[in-house]
Amino acid sequence: MRVKYDVDTQLLFQIGDPLDHACACTIHNRMYELANLNAVNLNVVVKRGELPQFIQSCKQLGVRGFDITMPHKSDVIPLCDEVEPFSREFNCVNHVKIRDGKLIGVGLDGLGMVMAIEDAGIPLTGARVLMLGAGAVSGPIAAELCKRGVACVTVLNRTVSKAEQIVQTLKRYFPDLQARADTLTPERMAQYAPETTLVVQCTSMGMSGHQEDYTDLSFVDLLPARAAVADVIFNPERTALLARAEQRGLRVLNGMGMLVNQEKAMMKFHFDIDLGDEFAAEGEEALLVALAMRQLRTRRLEKKGARHEG
Question: Is the separation of the CB atoms in 2 and 18 below 8 Å?
Answer without folding.
Answer: no
